[in-house]
Amino acid sequence: MKKRNNPLRLTLSYVLLIIIAVVSIYPVLWIFLSSLRPGAALFSERLWPEAFTLSHYGELFNNPSFMYGRWYLNTLKIAFFTMIFSTLMVTLGMYALSRFRFRGRQTILSTMLILGMFPSFMSMIAIYIILLQIKLLDTHAALILVYSSGAVLGGFIVKGFFDTIPRSLDEAARIDGASHLRVFTSIILPLSKPMLTYVALTSFTGAWMDFIFARLVLRTKENWTLAVGMWDLVNRYQDSNFTMFAAGAVLIAIPITLLFVFLQRFLVQGLTTGASKG
Amino acid sequence: MKQQHVPVSAPANREKQHRMTAAILSIILQGLGQLYNRQWIKGICLLLLEGAGLAYLLPRLSQAVWGIWTLGENTQRFVKVNGSTVLQRGDHSIFLLLEGIIVLLVFFVFIVVYILNIRDAYLTGLAREEGKKTLGAAASLRNMMDKNFPYLFLSIPALGVLFFTIMPILFTITLAFTNYSAPDHIPPAKLVDWVGFKTFSDLIQLKSWSHTFYGVLTWTVIWAVLATVTTYFGGVLVALLIEQRGIRFKKLWRTIFILPYAIPQIISLLLMRNLFNGQFGPINTYMRAFGLEGLPWLTDPFWAKVTVIVVNMWIGIPVSMVLILGVLTAIPRDLYEAAEVDGASAFQKFRIITMPFILFATTPVLIMQFAGNFNNFNVIFLLTNGNPLRGDYQYAGATDLLVTWLYKLTLDNNKYNMASAVGIIIFIIIASFSIWNFRRSKSFKEEDMIQ
């Protein structure tokens, strides 16, 4: 009975899906093709270029006023260390908050929630002055330090995940004489692989893409990250160097995109467990 | 996990009042009580800690209080020394304020340790009176590893949060009550003074400020609601489309649709800025090819608002889609089977089972997204930079949110006090809304029932 209206509905669904797919892909395709187009202008008559060239990619690394390679390495370094430290801090902290009932726990949870709601610039001037005082301004260590210590506030999803791991598991291990640390490393950690992936990935991409804070802290061009550099490129040379911007964008987006597509299973798990369990 | 000794009313004829002696000794000097209790290592550690604390605090504390109270008394000026003019450094109000806050925070930690020290001496003394053996250093450490494990695990993140989140916020809040702003009160050339609530009353009462404030606030609320609703229901729609029975290549669709989410925002937003370029952008080029005029996407106040919402959908729908795909897999199959037995139509099943389930599972996320959109700096700043400019606004454009306005006030115009006031107001709005909702949402109430 219901089968009858299915063909129409399915066709309609496919049409919709195809439209959404085109909208999703078009900008991506456009920037990719632009990066291969000869010339430098933003304007082009057609989507598909008449000729292809890789020269813009070469130019990125050879043009002395851009230092693209340098920025790439800077960004990789910052994102990598931020990922390590944030994941460590978030898992340790949230494990404690999820598993133990101790005095001040509720206060800590509420404080975290409230602190997470302050607009991040509220603290920018102060952090700037602090970094100036401890002579960390214009260093990558400053970014890593600030990103990692801020990551804890976003840890509710992790706590939600730990909450779903049955207590009986660690209680049994405790009875067998395992220490808290051992319970954590040999029971909780292996079980939370999807969550760890999620945290690591989001903190990596967070540091990889951050623009506001990086722009404030990194004062010299050699120390810039990709985000700051690319923003500068668009703001200053938009029309004259568009194809180069496109090439730079492709090189930034491809690794991150592959990572996401590859890890989307973990992402789904991470987001949903965090969502339904608060 | 309770570790306190239950205070037993000690018999009056007890010979030694260890607890009082120990506590008083600890009040006199931190660690003395522990030494009296024969906890040598702990006592020495506490003594050293007090020494270090005093060495840090004593020379600074009065200076800190003076600095916070006065915000400096001398401006920098030129003085004649041996016939030549030299620039003499004055007080830098802002450094004084920040250093003052740091010293007070250290002082606060110091006091907390001091109180804990007295409490510890008292409790150990009590244990001795009751004839219990006091713990040695090794045993104390083991006890700490076991009983105080969560504190140990939390201490490092807490330190980071204290210095890079709480302290900066305290500092910024205080700025709202000063007149720290260009052009008249920028150190080191000029001093900054406390002005109480004047900044807030200016913001609300002064025509030039209040007009901008209410205008930007209204747009921020409209934006946050529209951005959240469009991406959320867009995500629901896409997820349902993919998960329909009979749709093939589910994995392929999912991978394609996740693409906008995967591309770094800084790239996709700068890219969109080019796509919607009124002169050369491909969107207008295509429209002209179809004989249409083309639209002033980023330069007209109305269309710029439309553009940011559309672009935000492109970026945000995939996130909701991923989320809702996950929720959909969690809906129990038998609910649908039961509904089918009762002869429910596809739409009825959606309305009665699917949607309530999705809403229930994602309410907390929805609230977080609303709060996130309220402060969505990236989309506005990278796409339009708040433009097109509005002549009747104070340093703001038509698409500026409160948060990007705050950025402009701070970094471009040095109106620090006004920016802090705006920041505090943003915080009050977001925080009260989120807390109210969070408390209502089930996941908070039932936190402990999940185990």
UniProtKB/TrEMBL annotation, chain A:
<feature type="transmembrane region" description="Helical">
    <location>
        <begin position="78"/>
        <end position="97"/>
    </location>
</feature>
<feature type="transmembrane region" description="Helical">
    <location>
        <begin position="140"/>
        <end position="158"/>
    </location>
</feature>
<comment type="similarity">
    <text>Belongs to the binding-protein-dependent transport system permease family.</text>
</comment>
<dbReference type="GO" id="GO:0015423">
    <property type="term" value="F:ABC-type maltose transporter activity"/>
</dbReference>
<feature type="transmembrane region" description="Helical">
    <location>
        <begin position="242"/>
        <end position="263"/>
    </location>
</feature>
<dbReference type="Pfam" id="PF00528">
    <property type="entry name" value="BPD_transp_1"/>
</dbReference>
<keyword id="KW-0472">Membrane</keyword>
<dbReference type="InterPro" id="IPR000515">
    <property type="entry name" value="MetI-like"/>
</dbReference>
<dbReference type="InterPro" id="IPR050901">
    <property type="entry name" value="BP-dep_ABC_trans_perm"/>
</dbReference>
<dbReference type="GO" id="GO:0005886">
    <property type="term" value="C:plasma membrane"/>
</dbReference>
<keyword id="KW-1003">Cell membrane</keyword>
<keyword id="KW-0812">Transmembrane</keyword>
<dbReference type="GO" id="GO:0042956">
    <property type="term" value="P:maltodextrin transmembrane transport"/>
</dbReference>
<keyword id="KW-1133">Transmembrane helix</keyword>
<protein>
    <submittedName>
        <fullName>Binding-protein-dependent transport system inner membrane protein</fullName>
    </submittedName>
</protein>
<keyword id="KW-0813">Transport</keyword>
<dbReference type="InterPro" id="IPR035906">
    <property type="entry name" value="MetI-like_sf"/>
</dbReference>
<feature type="transmembrane region" description="Helical">
    <location>
        <begin position="109"/>
        <end position="134"/>
    </location>
</feature>
<feature type="transmembrane region" description="Helical">
    <location>
        <begin position="12"/>
        <end position="33"/>
    </location>
</feature>
